[in-house]
Amino acid sequence: MFELAPFAWDRAAKEPWLAAQLAELTRHHRDRCPAYRRMLDGLGFELRPDARVADFPFLPVRLFKEMELRSVPADAVFKTMTSSGTTGQTPSLIALDRETAGSQQKALVKIVADFLGPRRLPMLILDCPSVVKDRALFSARGAGILGFSIFGTERFYALDDDMRLDVAGIREFLARHAGQPVLLFGFTFMVWQHFYRELARLETPLDLSRGILVHGGGWKKLAGEAVTTREFKARLAEACGLARVHDYYGMVEQTGSIFMECERGHLHASVFSDVIPRRALDFAPCAVGEPGILEVVSLLPRSYPGHCLLTEDEGRLLGEDDCPCGRKGKYFEVLGRLANAEIRGCSDTYAVPT
What we know:
By secondary structure, this protein is of the alpha/beta class. It has helices spanning 11-32, 34-43, 63-66, 98-116, 140-148, 167-176, 188-199, 219-224, 229-240, and strands at residues 59-60, 79-82, 93-96, 121-125, 137-138, 152-157, 182-187, 211-216, 244-249, 259-261, 267-268, 273-278, 292-298, 308-320, 330-337. The chain has 2 domains: 11-76 and 267-336, no CATH class; 104-249, Rossmann fold (3-Layer(aba) Sandwich), CATH 3.40.50. Strands 1, 4, 6, 7, 8, 9, 10, 11, 12, 13, 14 and 15 form a 12-stranded mixed β-sheet that branches. The longest helix has 22 residues, at 11-32. The chain is globular. 43% of the residues are buried. The model is unreliable at 343-354 (pLDDT under 50).
């Protein structure tokens, strides 16, 4: 699977291959996770040789907050991922064995390298060091930082543990790598709250014109401040010359299977994943351009039955195989959280002082 180019297959090649892989995964989890087997039995689901990707049953993502679902023995779990959530909310607990964690990292490398190139870059992490200290119980923020750190050579945290921007340290970091591209990584609200706002106050601006920012999560908070994607990019360009910005959509329940934003502003499904907007009334797949509840599909989870998940986000499919960026597969946009859905997202784990 990891020998495949992540965005080279069109629908004719990808659909039957993905359906066959999902059939194998569904059998795997049915045989190894008793709770998942009972759910399939309750649905009366039977695997059919002609099943399409959209025919496989999905689980609501919130189910991982309510019960433990794993397809490996307890002694095979070497890492537990926790989802984001504000204080008082119950997080999802995702049990990973070494095979699943390794697959997540391999897929992440393949997907992101298609956008950044194969060479590792000096990396400016727009967060604080303390968020990654607990290596056994990863939060979504910590997992994201550690996952993307593989793309960095020298890594520098732009914030201290009091969430203050280390301007002097950043200037020294940029001086050491003058004339080189620099990778910046952070969660959307953290980038806005603790990076952009501080940059905008500087009398002598930082020059990040050779920077490439990858960011994700936290759009709900920015929507409350009336910050659009276009304004987010425009303000960063104005403050520090940052011109290359890639958002991504993903969640801890399917780590590794991220959907990266291309140069045309579209989120893309890779060969490891799929996205299916569904109608709220009957959960039928939506037509292109029709808003619906996003289902996300991933081939990576083997230690828990998280391969087909119904999210709490609304989005719409924009097309398939014809994005102007040249990448094959589905491309889409996220419209926001569903009404009355629980607030969650990578940067929501940080409580903003009031």
